[in-house]
Structure formats: C-alpha cells, structure tokens
Amino acid sequence: MRARGIALGSQAARVLTLLREWPDLETTLPSCRAGVGVAVGDNEILHLHAGDDAELCLTRPTIYRLYPALAGTNRVILGRSEDWIGIRLGTALDTDLLLTLLSLAIKTCVCGECDQKITPCSAAAFSEDPWPARRPAGIVPV
Predict the structure, then answer these.
(1) Which CATH architecture has domain 11-123?
(2) Phi, psi of 66, rounded to the nearest 5 degrees
(3) For the Luciferase domain, which residue ranges apply (predicted)?
(4) Over the Cα atoms of the chain, what is R_g?
(5) pLDDT for 8
(6) Which tens digit of pLDDT belongs to each residue from 56-114?
(7) pLDDT of 45
(8) Are 58 and 104 in contact (CB under 8 A)?
(9) Alpha carbon of 9 to those of 13, 19, 124: distances in Å?
(10) Euclidean distance between CA atoms 118 and 84, whole angstroms
(11) Whole-prediction pTM value?
C-alpha cells in the first residue's frame, strides 16, 4: 500500500503494511489533510504525516492516566493537542510502541471515549482549510 506523503521503506510505510491485517481499520484522508489517516468506524485514531511523524488519538482521559509513562520516553511528544500524542517513528521499536498504543486507542474508542468531542491533531492547526471535506464524528475545530 503506497500512500501520498509516506516514503517507501519508512517506518510509517511499515505501519501501514502491518495494519492491513488488523480487522475493522480503514485508511482514509485524514481530517487535517496531511498524510494518511487510520480510522476505526467513524473515528480517526491515527494520522501518519509526512516523514515519520505520527499522531495518535488517545483522548484526554487516557493521556492523563498514562502521563507518567508517556512523559518518560523521548519518542512520545505531548502537548500538541489535548486528545492526540505525537510519536517519532525512527526505528522498529518506535513502530512497536505506536502499534501497542494504537491497540489502546482502539479500545478507548470501543469503550465510548471517542464519542465525546475530540480536538483536532496538531497538523489541523496549520491547515489552510479550517473545515476539511471529511470531518469524522466528534472532531471539532478549535
């Protein structure tokens, strides 16, 4: 699977390849229009932006619960958005971390936390169009 903005052989491309086998996930144009989105149902939970920059929607309650562990790694970027974390995908271990946290993001959505208003990812803040064509349920501009 080749996606616009995702280099062949990159960790982001590896993520997309591995996610092909995960049930109930769909690749989409993300609401921020930067790179590739991954959704479960109507909820975008992962954005793979240009390069090896990923953003994962964990939601505020989950981020707060995991804050000590997330803040303890230099691979996770906190504070970009209230509901999203950033992950630098430089190595296979970073990809493994992303996939582990993606499993948690899926569970978070299944448990209903994604049904609440979710803030956009950080790339949406720099988008020229504040109202993208496809806006997933629960995503509101700030």
Answers:
(1) Alpha-Beta Complex (3.90)
(2) -95, 5
(3) 43-105
(4) 14
(5) 81
(6) 999 889 999 999 999 998 889 898 788 999 999 999 999 999 999 999 999 887 776 66
(7) 92
(8) yes
(9) 6, 15, 26
(10) 9
(11) 0.81
Residue 91 token pair: 């190595």
Domain ranges in the chain? 11-123
pLDDT of residue 134: 39
* DSSP secondary structure letters along the chain: ---TT--TTSHHHHHHHHHTTSTTEEEE--TT-SSEEEEETTEEEEEE-STTEEEEE--HHHHHHHHHHHHT-TTEE-SSSSSEEEEE--SHHHHHHHHHHHHHHHHHHHTTGGGS-BPPPGGGGG-S-SS-S---TTB---
**Residue closest to 1 by CA, chosen among 34, 41, 28, 32:** 28
136 pLDDT higher than 60: no
Q: Do residues 36 and 47 lie in contact, with contact meaning Cβ atoms separated by under 8 Å?
A: yes
**CB 109, CB 41: distance < 8 Å:** yes
Q: What percentage of residues in the chain have a pLDDT greater than 90?
A: 40
